[in-house]
Protein 1
Amino acid sequence: MNRNTEIAILLFSRSAGRESNSKRWTQDQNVNAHISKQLLSNTLENLKNAPFPVVLVDESLQFGNTFAERLANGFKHVFEKGFLQVIAVGNDCLDLNLDWKTIAAQLQMGKTILGPDRRGGVYLIGISNESDIEEKFSRISWKSNKVYDQLTKQFNNCYLLDSKQDINTFEDIIKTKSLFQQIKRFLVNQFIEVIQNPIISITPNALLQLRAPPSLTIV
């Protein structure tokens, strides 16, 4: 696949270990760590289909006192590598099969690309090298349901993508069949290991939380 050398994807994500400490999907840390690892792995696999290089900016490269500062500095980090446009994504949207050709064309026309999630946030932000990016980001109520609306007001001439589901809660995992199947396989392996080696344990709470509701059928 030919790679576009003017555009890069900024994967703005904490490492799986750090992410699992922040997002507690279940009450078992081993399960949380696996979920975080799986989300990051799935995102990287998705991005292989994109015709742009991917730059991972984890907590070792995230600088600033606020999320706005850290994200703005993440963009700057990629711009400083010589790219003219940067597309930022996180690790909490499994469906990144996008029309990258159209996104590239819109970016090169000077438009800001926004991919709204279904909670009022965004799963994707694509911008050109703007000098006031930190100032604009500072006006956004990050991690709230106001993010998408506020971004459309801060950045004029936006190109909007289809809305997509993000993964923030255990209920989101259950609703996402492919991810839930992966977690179920991990749990089965853990359970077998517990039986074979009683020293290794997984809490009953984790087993309960990872059980699908009676009304849900997984084929």
Protein 2
Amino acid sequence: MIGGWSAGAPAFSGHRDQITAGHDAVVLATGAATPVEAFRVGDRAYGVQFHPEFDAALVETYVDGPGVRGYLRAGGCDPDALVAEARRRDSAHRLLGEGLLQRWLHVAAVDRDPWRGTWPG
């Protein structure tokens, strides 16, 4: 689990691509159809497959993009239901995304860089 992103919290993942975790990675989040949604390698390297930056407005823009409605329907997703759900969860999702960004910035700005002393220098 990613700190601050509660277990079971929804996240937008608008593609069929999947990543795999390397032997030294720790899986932090999974999805119903995606075995790796987020991972960590070591103490400071993180990767996410889902989109914590997507708010309701961005989901709506995405859905209205060329060919996206057909793509979503072909994958069994109702585009209008997706937009409605994104709107319903927008406030909570924004807080989770902002919290995730704040934690990442803390790691990047506060933790020590073993090559230069402190980060940033």
